[in-house]
Amino acid sequence: MLVEDIFSRDPLYVEDSTYLTKARQLIRDNHVRGLPVVDSRVQVLGVITSQDVLRITSTKSNVTVSGFKVQVPAVTGDTDVLDAARIMLKEKSNLLPVVESQEDKTLRGVVTIIDIFKHLDISKVPKKPIGEIMSTKVVTARLDEPVTKVWDRMVERDFTGLPMVRDEKPMGIITRFDILKRGWARISKESETRPVERMQLPAEKLMSSPLYSLGPTASVAEAIELMLKHDVGRVSVVDEGRIMGIVDRSDLIKCYLGE
Length: 259
Fold this sequence. Notes:
Elements: E1 8-9, E2 14-15, H1 20-30, E3 34-38, E4 44-49, H2 50-53, E5 75-76, H3 81-91, E6 95-99, E7 107-112, H4 113-118, E8 141-142, H5 147-157, E9 161-166, E10 169-175, H6 176-181, H7 196-199, E11 213-214, H8 220-230, E12 234-239, E13 242-248, H9 249-257
Parallel strand pairs: 2-3, 5-6, 8-9, 11-12
Antiparallel strand pairs: 1-7, 3-4, 6-7, 9-10, 12-13
Helix pairs in contact: 3-9
């Protein structure tokens, strides 16, 4: 399968002179993980991601996308989908611009890790339990923690979501988009200007539930099917009511590729 078969055409994009706050609004309002950044001739310069816009801490800013864009390799329509997946994993990027050719960087569209995940061939998935591939260093958030602390943890450690726990038992999840879509990326970081009641908003108020989970002996194929069914980016690995690990799309694609 080629990128041509699965990529999104006519994507949203921003020019490098676009204000960062505008890019944040586009990402939030359209529920996308990032946007291609182009010049005035629609030549690809890089991407801006939801991780980048979480770093914006005020409602008004004259900072432009130019200084925050990340350079990632562009792919073409005739790139093999699995090769595109390998590039994403290597670059730790959730999306790649699709261009006319390696010589002509005119933007055609984007291919995302979600596009690739949706087109995995279940019949070719390695027969492994998820306990063998899960990430075991699980970082969680408490229900009563202030949103601002959870936000800082996501930004500093580049997490897209954190399981939420009470007495070490999983209760739900808070994701980067949960924060963005409710406008909480706009909270001022200057504590003296931030209202106390907002600063102390518990993360539970922005939590999504349920937290989808499987046992450690569940197969990789079961995890893929569960995530596709519920359109979620990760599942918790739970044993006897406690979180043992996390499996996300990248973990499952790595396993599929034999990496």
